[in-house]
Every structure is written in C-alpha cells, then in structure tokens.
Amino acid sequence: MLSDVTPMPTLPTADLDRARAFYEGVLGFVPGDDLPEGVRYRAGHGAVLVYPSQYAGTNQATALGFEVDPDRFDEEVSALRAAGVSFDTFEWEGVDWEDGVASMEGGKAVWFRDPDGNILNLMAPAS
Description:
This protein is α+β, with helices and mostly antiparallel strands. Helices cover 19% and strands 39% of the residues. It has helices at 16-26, 70-82; strands at residues 10-13, 31-35, 38-43, 46-52, 62-67, 96-98, 101-104, 107-113, 119-125. The longest helix is centred in the middle third of the chain and has 13 residues, at 70-82.
C-alpha cells in the first residue's frame, strides 16, 4: 500500500539555479541526485524534488512542512532569519502572532516562501 511508502514532495521552480541557491544556501539542503527533471534533496528519511515548471509559484497553500522538536524550533527560526528569510502572517482564529511566529494550542509555527513563492512551513508541537 502507498501508506507504507515515504512520499516525495515536489516543488516547481521557474529558475532551477535560483532555487538551488535557496534550498542549498539558505535551508542547508545537500543536493543528492541531479536528475533530468531537477534536483533531489534528502530530508530526514525522505526527499524533496525541485524541478523546472511553467506552473511555479501558482500554489497558494502550504506546499512543504518541516516538523522539529520544540527545543529546536527557536534555533531554526533564528537561522532562517539570519539567512534573510521573512515570515508570512495571516488571519487565523485562535492564533497569536509575535514577530512572524504563530503560537497556538498545538504548538508554534512559521510560514515562509521560496524564491518561486512556494509556501513552506516550520512547526513544532507543544511541549
């Protein structure tokens, strides 16, 4: 069954070199396989494929999320800020925002965009 297989999110880009600079230089991904259709990055026990597409930046929902332990969340947020990443905020009932960080009953989270506008999320469950 597919539920036994680790999924591989795919993220479109209009400019693969620009996307690589972001995923490798800002997020610290190490390129794995260079494929004719893009580049695959290992992440945890899975992988992410970044590939050229004319539809890059058209998704207006979260495309990729990363869950970290609560004791690591602030460190990861600081590293993203230091790399020049800015965080999105939006209306969401029951969520308190402080300096781009959402706090809610279930934990903390930030949302940010890659150079193509793909929305990424970093979250930590409540401890």
